[in-house]
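User: Structure please.
Assistant: Input sequence and predicted structure:
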Amino acid sequence: MSKKAKKWSAADGLFSHNPVFAAGMCLAPAIIATTTIYGAAVYCAVFSAVTLTALMICSFLPRKLPYALRIVLYTITAAAVYVPFRIFFDGQFDYDLSKLGVLLPMIVSGEFITSAAELRFFRLEKGRMIIDVISHIAGVCIAMLLLGFVRELFSTGGINGELYGVGFTVPVLGAPCGGFILIGFTGAFIRLFRKKRTAASGKE
């Protein structure tokens, strides 16, 4: 019996193929920007705006162009998109964006703009591509907000300086190793879930 072709799902990026937990993408911001939920939210806002806009523009570039040239054009487009969004968001939050250091400019040359665009997004027809991009961007944001909430709450006992009666704290969660641990455990759970679901579907 031939193997069933992998079906595309609009929810791929949210859970079973979550870019952070399942694919290991955006690990640097997922570790550094999520020590607080507010830092994670600010990063997600900039990331979502820049990535979605850049990918929508880049999707109109001819596929006949050489691969190396396409990657260069993707990065240049993302950089051009990043500048106005960076200026715009600088005054929108009660948060110093410089705290995120190089994480924000790294969006321009991140996996979404380069490898994911070529290997996944731009291989889909336009309608599915848009849904897929939004799904994966949402997956990144969900992962980072969840990490930010858990890490801040259980490393400090509260959110944004306000305590919420947490009976114990684990300060190591606020350190980079704490972020790696949470991502590792969550990724392992997702892979186990996918394995069981694949096995169950194979028996049908």
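The CA atoms of residues 49 and 161 lie 28 Å apart.
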